[in-house]
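Q&A FORM
Asked by: J.P.
Topic: structure of Glutamine--fructose-6-phosphate aminotransferase [isomerizing]

PROVIDED:
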Amino acid sequence: EKGGYEHFMLKEIYEQPNAIKDTYRGRLQSRDNFVKMSGIEDNLRKFTNANRIIIVACGTSWHAGLVAEYIFETIATVPVEVEYASEFRYRNPIINSQDVVIAISQSGETADTLAAIKLAKEKGAFVFGVCNVVGSSIARETHAGAYTHAGPEIGVASTKAFTTQITVLTLLALKLGKANGTLSNSEFNKYLLELESIPEKVEKTLLTDEHVKYIASIFKDAANFLYLGRGYNFPVALEGALKLKEISYIHAEGYPAAEMKHGPIALIDEQMPVVVIATKKGHYEKIISNIQEIKSRKGKIIAVVTQGDTQVKKLADHTIEVPETIEPLTPLLTTIPLQLLSYHIAVMRGCNVDQPRNLAKSVTVE
Ligand code: M6R
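REPLIED BY: S.T.
REPLY: Here is the structure written out as tokens.
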């Protein structure tokens, strides 16, 4: 059942090229320059007339929502807010029929997300679901939706659900960007072609596995980890830290790299591994100066870089290369080595990777 892999988590990490392909299959039509998503087509007006989009989710799905925020704002120029479902439901959120709420959930059973949906519906918002489990409570409770076709995710640590959620949300953003005139036909096509090439690039990224395992062996006994990223890769830093925490029980924090100097930099010494996502696109020079700040305080730098990078390589203790892609799609690649890093560290520490202590696959209690 684990298909020859030692753990479900590893199997699911390796399934990502196919899971992403299965998620865009039939929807992404690059030759016709079209994205087909009936859940959106039937409700396009709701989306194009919306004042804003509010994304509600928990955990890793919330991180996918944060990535989507950047994507929507660039590709579809729609204002987006991302909320923890548990906070949203207990506030008095100001929402009305002009708002579209997108609920993201792998299991489709998360209690807080389900309650947030019910609240948004009561207030008259249109609610769109992005779920993995067909026929789940959230899939049923939303007005419309689009499934991620990740296949069953058994490992408690979410991996392929995250990358397929980003895939669906990118398709949605593209559809809106085209409908509201933000994207020209040629820009739209460029995105489609690039998204279509992602599974192959994920495949190439998976080839870093042995090298990542080696890095894991060096840092497996660390007491703390910091993860830093900017822009599209800030949520990837949060996701990397969450993954490490939940399966290896090492304390880890994710931060936007520029926030370092507002506090966390005080933590840095020679004992502190810092994972920095430093791909060529987007704030590259800024990230380099962040890396220099860490280095001068003797922090150990593990950098995720674009293939062929030379500048970061000179500064970092370890680098992990990912193929080049357009900036909004980098999270689909940069997240892979971070999944592998947490996996290998957890295995080396003898942790129960697929069923970490205190955690359940779906959180159906508040
Ligand atoms: O099923 P959901 O996507 O609604 O679950 C949300 C979170 O409970 C989930 O992502 C959790 O954070 C994972 N264990 C993270 O790996």
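FOLLOW-UP: Residues 58-61, 105-107, 110, 113, 156-158, 242, 246, 362-363 surround 5-amino-5-deoxy-1-O-phosphono-D-mannitol (CB under 6 Å).
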